[in-house]
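Consider this:
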Amino acid sequence: MFDTNIYTSRRNRLISNINSGILLFLGNSEAGCNYKDNQYLFRQDSTFLYFFGLDKPDLAAIIDTESGRQIIFGNDVDIDDIIWMGPQPYLKDQAGEVGVTETAPFVKLADYLHDAVKKGRKVHFLPPYRNHNKMILHKMLGIDFEQMKSSASEEFIKAVVKLRLIKEPCEIEEIDKACNVGYAMHYAAMKMMKPGMVEQELVGIMQGVCSSNAYMPSFPIILSQNGETLHNHSHHQILTEGRLCVIDAGAEIASHYASDFTRTLPCSGKFTQQQKEIYTIVATANNYALDTSRPGITYTEVHLGASKIIVQGLINLGLVHGDVDEAVAAGVQGLFMPHGLGHNMGLDVHDMEDLGENYVGYDDTYKRAKQFGLASLRMGKMLEQGHVISDEPGIYFIPALIEKWKKEETCREFINFGKLEAYYHFGGIRLEDDILITANGCRLLGSKRLPISVEDVESEMRQ
């Protein structure tokens, strides 16, 4: 939890961006894993955390944008709770720590909302993603489940995105901490990887490092020798000499700020010549984005610049031919990198995507492209100081996708489909860092950088 003034200032700035009405914030509830009392690790709603800072279940809050009235709704514990949980602070005392002076039992929220609707007041709410909160909205506001996403307040969404997208110094400090834990997770895997291990062993090692230093992994760890599958969560294979292993993982610390790194490692500790050639192209694209990202340039421009590096590298290897600019304009890079260069980060590893990707990564000026690959770029608009984004180019050889393009003759004037057959068992390579946009450029987040060059990776793994 940050200083009281941080939360008070955030709420005041939010009010200044809303014309009128009641802002409704629904916190999360605990969720049973396989029965009610065996629960998943609790995770508070990120927007509720951002504006109210209270990290406990079954809370809600309202802000009256006209009167300025702010209320947190929730229940104090009873003796049964105390037996199992120990003494707990009163809600009014917790609310005071974030600058809210008025609290009420959770049951009073329905009365408040019904009264507001009866008076013709607009109740703004954000798109719900938890079924529990969908049921609350249905019960208290009478909204059909199918209409909840479309009925969410666009004005509220845009106001929240405007504030949360630009990170404050206190947030950057937390993200740096999360990146340091992510660094330790990856470094442990890099040091302990060896042929004969089961992939799951490395996953367990990384989870152990995370649990010892943070709240939880920021998303289920991706670790696989089948790197051509972008988000492969199967960890049953034995690490085999000559294969590559893509590891995409990060940490979520106690404040719930997140990190997200990817490295691709040779299982034996040494790249083959073919692997080295592709890896070097991806590393060059990663460094290009790091050197280029700054205020005043769109991340779409950075993505396309990295795409040119990837396509030119493939031209040099004879896998693609023709003019690099024409090839990129035609979308050749989508065959090899069918995802975007990066996404926003913060309290969510994919920051605020529950509110809608196009609100977060695009705006009225910068619209999402429709071209395959580029359409998957989650962050495309103009970069500003305070943005925190991932930089994660990749090259993947996906046999099913290659065969599809070959059959449909997609970009056939640029792609050497015959030579690509030698890469059908290659897998994929992704290299990801987390960056902060600064006044004149950008910087890596965290106190160190994971080894990224061929030489540094092989040196670290050899040691």
